[in-house]
Amino acid sequence: MMVKVYKIGGNVIENEGALEAFCKAFAAVPGRKVIVHGGGVMASSLQKALGQEPVKIEGRRVTDEDALKAVTMVYAGWCNKTIVSKLQSLGVNALGLSGCDGNVIEASRRAPKTLSDGKTVVDFGYVGDVTKTSVNRAFLDSLLDMGCVPVLCAINHDGKGQLLNTNADTVASSVAACLGAQLVCCFEMDGVLRDVDDPSSVIAQIKACEFEELVRDGVIADGMIPKIENCINSLRDGASKAFITNSTLASMGTEIVL
Q: Could you give the angle at the alpha carbon of 164 between the alpha carbons of 172 and 118, nearest 5°?
């Protein structure tokens, strides 16, 4: 039976109404399913409350030791358990996990990266990279076989005792590819918009071969670029389908195809 992997971000989790709507819609989805979530907005807020200054470079969080403690508290703690408790209240047997729990995801620490300027090299700190081979499919299958719904946060580990912060979109992409699943990326709009000022201008389908042209034309920009890139990568690595849609799951949204 096909598995569906749903990814939700911090903007949904932080909005109580949006999270309630998602959980209710998710609870009504039949079959085997997984949630992957982020929580970056709340993590940044906690960092500031703790006297830290969040640092992001090209959209990626630099995670030093203090930042790692903060994001672990948020992702593996409040966000994860809030989602699990809401799903349990709706009759969904959810099980919250970080990557080290059951060794469900073992990441590799990211090496220093050269930025898009081709010159600047940045060490992102305790950041983990994952691929579909990082995912413990046998463990996830065993949970799904028992009727559990895994709720995965973006905190993983390197197998040597070190926690690592991972981009949640990449986690969702890798899990979907590993399971041969349908990937559903949920955010505030009904899908990818041709005109950001017109909520009804949803693009029904985007082909991988059209992606770069849409970026050049400015139709796809900012945070939507990595979302679509992750969908394309997931399809190439084994995911069955990929969609970007509203967190209410009321519409099919935009399908990404190869």
A: 80
